[in-house]
Sequence to fold (718 residues):
Amino acid sequence: MPRVRGTNVAAAQWSPNGSITFGDLTIPGTSIYGSNVFGPDEQRQRLPKTIFRQLQATIDRGEPLDSGLADAVALAMKDWALERGATHYTHWFQPLTGSTAEKHDSFYGPVGDGTSIAQFSGKELIRGEPDASSFPSGGIRATFEARGYTAWDPTSPAFIMENPNGAYLCIPTAFASWTGEALDTKIPLLRSMAALDKSAQRALVLFGDAPQRVYTTIGPEQEYFLIDEQFYFERPDLIATGRTLFGAKPAKGQQLDDHYFGSIPERVLAYMLEIERELAKLGVPVKTRHNEVAPGQYEIAPIFENSNVGTDHQLLSMQVMQAVARRYGMVCLLHEKPFAGVNGSGKHNNWSMSTDDANLLDPGDSPHDNLQFLFFATAVIRAVDKHQGLLRASIASAGQDHRLGANEAPPAIISIFLGKELESVFTSIAAGEPAESAAREVMNLKAGVLPELPKDTGDRNRTSPFAFTGNRFEFRALGSNQSPSFANTVLNTIVAESIDSLCEDLEAKMAGTKKKPGKTLEDALSEVIAATYKSSGRVVFDGDGYSDEWHAEAAKRGLLNLKTTPDALPQLVSEQTVGVFSNYGVLSDRELHSRLEVALEQYVIKLNIEAETAADIAATMLLPAAARHLAILKGAGLTALAKECTTLIDQFTKAIKALQTANLDENHPTDLAEEAAYMRDTVFAAMNDVRAVADTLERTVADDLWPLPRYSEMLFIR
Ligand code: ADP
Ligand code: MG
Fold:
């Protein structure tokens, strides 16, 4: 059997490792949910009452933490961790690379008599000092002062990560420079949640509600690919860049539409059951699993949580998904576009605002709830319209450039889909109908014999980047590999600003003047909604976001169309962005500039790695295969074919040379923004030229000589 077939047969083998035992779930204590989390239940049992109450006050009401309580919490946490076999602890944080970071320290230290004891102080719990110099800071951290601090985030519970050979305690932390500037994605997210809380409470009071804490919530749906690890390790491009830099389109792709929601292959289901089990232990409330559109593509979604915990859980999920795949002889690909010509992977960020008892984006049944809902929905529309460029920038990355705007992912133009019902509510209010009756007429349709239908049925628009889905908005343009942190930081901040702006208008109208009496809430609200919808409604679009007509129409409406990462990133430091972020104390001008610099750097570095990997694979793997093939043709006296092959090889050699030259250091512009544009326009273009010839060669060269696993194998053999 040729090498290729042998590999494929090996890849198709797997035997269940049967590592999961399942018991009678009706017996108390069988559920493993949260068993590796130092959550409220565990805290209550282990902490002195007063300490527990103080800690809860910090967590529930955002009250500052009394450092006196740290020692007691540390002691309880350490005992809990040791009971579970954890020998080490780590501050777990989220530097600007977009992933997570950890540095493990042992609980154990030697004592004079040759033995060692486990210790963990409050100081070690609340503060760490990792060497910040190895993390990107975008110029915030001068080289002479490399210090950075991690600080305990008590609102996200500590957890234990298990390895076959041991366990360690992870403490979620924020990461800042010694000057107090954020070097991570958690700090701004927490600041943005606080900002929205304040603005939303102000609005609730206007609506006559008692002030109460408002949280933002997220439920991220995560798409991913699974391929056999045998193929993965045969592809230097997947290893180095996470995506295939070569690969001809397979005869069978996703045309048959036979994968989506199809039955889940046994090996994949076994894997899913294990990640769900691991995540359950970590307290991640995983709810949904299914096949996605592309062959080899799947989705996992949790139940929503507050944005901070939800983000931590999302990052943990990505980590667990990748780790567990190897136990099944597979690799989990989280790149936004691992295979050209096949659907890419996104992350749908379901987002809402909520008090302890009510979702503020749920239309509700009473007039009061309807009005409140309309108010908050209006704030979102205004925010998305005003800050469309920033939202676009918040999801920009090298991986996303292959997907956004293509015929499978949302367009690069940010618009909102409201659904027919809600859009007609807004248009009638804008046309002068009072808010209350417009809302009641459309949203309280109750058709006698039918059970009351949930309001989010039916109306869906897969082409919209930002869609209302019944009781939340779904920001559907995030990339599979992205932390949801920054996109949510942006959402929270810009919506906070819009809520305040609408509140000001409402307050002014309701107060009235000496001559004119104040208006009722209903009347004032109708006017504010009408005016806001008139000025921001251009961002609302319910048609086909993929169509050329929409691009033309969007341009007419003055909406931004930022096609690539280098186009979008400057929005991070636009006057408007700097304004809203500094007004709400979420990120300073300097912090924003540092983020721009890191994002540009990451873009350039990623493309540079891709370009070098592509040139190496082409020169050292594909070209030799083509040369061997040519020798066979010549040896067999197949002159005409040999001539064609020679032409291809010549083209290929030229294209490789051109790529190598384009990516020479001395040819890169020195200015970072210019370099990013150069990578996109020149280096990436040169890579595509190499790929075009390579993909033709793949269909020409003898099967047993071609050194890379093909799309037809990677996507279909499992
Ligand atoms: P669909 O594929 O139809 O969008 P899924 O069930 O796959 O639906 O995912 C919906 C996601 O939306 C889930 O993660 C769910 O927890 C989340 N979600 C539901 N309500 C809210 C909310 N109020 N805030 C944030 N996320 C929410
Ligand atoms: Mg969805």
In short: The two ends are 19 Å apart (CA to CA). Residues 221, 348, 474 surround magnesium ion (ligand 2) (CB under 6 Å).
